[in-house]
Amino acid sequence: MKLLLMMGKVWTTGGPALLWALLWWGVALAVTAAGIPLLVWDDQFSTFVAGDWRDPYATPGLVNPPWALLLLLPFRVLPLPVAVLAQMLVYFVLLALVIRRYGRPEQGRLAALVVFSSPLALNTALELNIDWMIALGLLLPRPWSAPLLLIKPQNAAGYLASFSGRELRGWLVVVCVTLLLSLVVWGNWPAALLANLDVYGISPLVNAAPLAILGSAFGGAGVALSLVAGALLLWQAWRRQDAVLGVCGGLLWVPYLAGYSLLLPFTLLAARWPRALLVVSAGLWLAVVAAVLPLVGLL
């Protein structure tokens, strides 16, 4: 009986996430098959699944620490569509676990529906990145999250504001050990990473960081607004040891955030306030429909 109850809890948490992952992966596959002029799984094809962990910065566009490619080794033996599906299944189940950990149990089903039915989930399916590693980091004991959070530090740097002093010291110890071991294995990889960043850069067209958006719209006043709002959230995160406020506050400070990385903070917010994020998701769908309809008329 206990085994059945445990299996029921696992399915309640992860089952719907797996079904949504399959649905959106199928949509992405259909977009590719239909020849619609959208980049689908470009990062996976050109950088992540294609990357060689032994010589990571020979891979075009890799601007992550080299150990990220170690986590991708199991997916390299699979055909690209299957590798993407496997990572999507992992990511969506991890998001379901994030909802369960950081949200209220009685709102978990609504939060999951809001997250996985959102246009941000579809966007993730079209251009899957490695944000699942950050989601995993948010589920591990805090000091052990360090190697994963360092893979894309802009995504969850504010998480550290919710740490106790002891947790932060442990986290920094793990950071130092990780960096020392990585220098032994890969040599002076930070220089190679910076060289890759100089060559390939980051397109400002895909920058969804509030700091960049507000700065572009309102100049210095917009930048100041983002920084002040971020500081307030980080302060509250420190006072309450609140991971959700910490991650969101940190995002208001970073200069760059890819659009496909918005699904994770959206999940954290939906876990806490699912009804408000349902309204946000509906608004995003209206914006998507308004953008797509003119294109449909041109086909």
Strand content: under 5%
Series of secondary-structure elements, N-terminal to C-terminal: HHHHHHHHHHHHHHHHH
Q: Could you name the ranges where pLDDT drops below 50 across 5 or more consecutive residues?
A: 1-7
Question: What kind of oligomer do you see?
Answer: single chain
Structural class: mainly alpha
Estimate percent helicity: over 70%
Structure annotation, total helices: 17
According to DSSP, the number of beta strands is 0
N/C terminus separation: 56 Å
Anisotropy-based shape: globular
Biggest sheet features = none
Average pLDDT works out at: 91
What value does the Rg take, in angstroms?
A: 19 Å
Structure description:
The chain is an all-alpha fold. It is 70% helix and 0% strand. The chain contains 17 helices and no strands. The longest helix is centred in the N-terminal third of the chain and has 32 residues. The chain starts with a helix and ends with a helix.
